[in-house]
């Protein structure tokens, strides 16, 4: 049985099943920040898996605007975007599993202004990243010692939809994620109203434009992030500008997509300013969550396991102001929401049967936190 068949089997077994809750212990947490509100870099702490309580954060590494983070599958390395006096770059760190401290290994130039997102490909072979202001994306292969090799594939996006002129005056790639089968990289471009599609080379060290080259999103929606159902059958993208999530059928072999549903992330009657930030499918595959900045909530949805379509199930306060990002613990028990404007991170408990979120009461101060990542 080849690797893709094993992945499909594992996803099928996982989907629709309740995850076993952890009976205790702690898990390490990393917090990405912007160098505002007194932040000095990347912070770390722990979460108690029995109560959802977060420990007080400590500085793991001084860094320049390490807003978005990614943890290697081996959990030995952490990668961060960075921008400042040292340039626009992606930075590699080794993780001290005992203390949580980070040691910088090396960095590589991103080739564009404001790298805003980084993620890791299968088997820790590469990282892919997006530069919002620079309008570009790229791939950097990884060495076995966790260091970054120079950028092997770089793409400058051009053109925009122009539907919302103040936000879509040019290309704005906002994230880069590898599809579950490891063959495609998806790059939502907020300025183009497209999710650009790139094909990973056979050696996993480069990528080329796919054919088809993109998935078309709702006009003026402003796609920001994507997330996938564990089976790989469906892709979900949050539309930052219009506060909605679009559901797409996905053929991972070809990259062919079909948008089939777009659903609001806001409660009926809300008329304030809002934009969405993060969107994630729960590890069980049964639920989807999206953060609202303005309504300051996490919107919850149930996923139809036959069609992949969404049904809104409610909204829960993020416990602060402007939830830029959130993370779900690997066991599916908790969501930790990074509230950028109120400089805190709050924990919500996930009901494994309904997906409903309940505040745990655990909240800690993390200056200008915009990303949460867990290490088992």
Description:
The protein has 376 residues and is mainly beta. Helix content is 3%, strand content 50%. The chain has 1 helix and 28 strands. A 4-stranded antiparallel β-sheet has the order 3-2-1-28, with no helix packed on it. The radius of gyration is 19 Å and the shape is globular. It starts with a helix and ends with a strand. Residues 1-21 have low confidence and may be disordered.
Number of strands: 28
Parts with pLDDT < 50 across at least 5 consecutive residues: 1-21
Instruction: Note the main sheet.
Output: 4 strands, antiparallel
What is the residue-mean pLDDT, rounded to a whole number?
94
Going across the major beta sheet, what is the strand order?
A: 3-2-1-28
Order of helical and strand elements: HEEEEEEEEEEEEEEEEEEEEEEEEEEEE
- Radius of gyration, Cα only, in angstroms? 19 Å
Specify the structural class.
mainly beta
What coarse outline follows from CA principal-axis ratios?
A: globular
What percentage of residues falls in helices of 4 or more residues?
Answer: under 10%
Determine the number of helices (DSSP H or I, runs of at least 4 residues).
1
Taken as a percent bin, the fraction of beta residues is over 45%
Straight-line N-to-C gap: 28 Å
């Amino acid at each position: 049985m080849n690797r893709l068949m094993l992945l499909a089997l594992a996803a099928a077994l996982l989907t629709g099943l309740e995850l076993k809750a952890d009976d205790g212990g702690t898990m390490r947490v990393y917090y990405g920040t912007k160098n505002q509100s007194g932040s000095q870099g990347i912070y770390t702490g722990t979460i108690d898996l029995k109560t959802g309580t977060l420990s007080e954060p400590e500085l793991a590494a001084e860094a320049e605007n390490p807003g978005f983070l990614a943890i290697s599958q081996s959990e030995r390395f952490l990668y961060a975007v960075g921008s400042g006096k040292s340039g626009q770059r992606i930075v590699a760190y080794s993780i001290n599993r005992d203390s949580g401290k980070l040691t910088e290994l090396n960095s590589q130039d991103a080739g564009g202004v404001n790298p805003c997102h980084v993620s890791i490909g299968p088997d820790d072979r590469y990282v892919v990243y997006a530069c919002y202001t620079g309008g570009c994306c790229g791939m950097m292969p990884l060495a076995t010692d966790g260091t970054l090799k120079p950028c092997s594939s770089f793409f400058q996006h051009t053109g925009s939809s122009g539907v919302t002129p103040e936000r879509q005056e040019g290309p704005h790639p906002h994230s880069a994620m590898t599809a579950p089968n490891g063959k495609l990289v998806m790059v939502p471009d907020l300025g183009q109203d497209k999710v650009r599609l790139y094909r990973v080379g056979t050696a996993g060290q480069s990528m080329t434009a796919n054919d088809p080259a993109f998935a078309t999103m709702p006009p003026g929606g402003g796609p920001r992030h994507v997330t996938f159902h564990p089976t790989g059958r469906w892709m979900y993208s949050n539309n930052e500008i219009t506060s909605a999530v679009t559901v797409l059928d996905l053929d991972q072999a070809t990259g062919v997509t079909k948008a089939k549903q777009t659903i609001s992330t806001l409660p009926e009657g809300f008329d304030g300013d809002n934009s969405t930030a993060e969107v994630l499918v729960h590890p069980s595959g049964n639920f989807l969550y999206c953060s609202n900045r303005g309504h300051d909530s996490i919107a919850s949805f149930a996923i139809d396991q036959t069609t992949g379509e969404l049904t809104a199930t409610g909204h829960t306060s993020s416990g602060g102001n402007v939830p830029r990002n959130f993370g779900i613990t690997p066991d599916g028990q908790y969501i930790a929401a990074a509230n950028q404007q109120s400089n805190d991170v709050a924990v919500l408990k996930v009901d494994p049967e309904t997906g409903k979120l309940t505040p745990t009461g655990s909240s800690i101060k993390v200056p200008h936190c915009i990303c949460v990542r867990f290490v088992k």
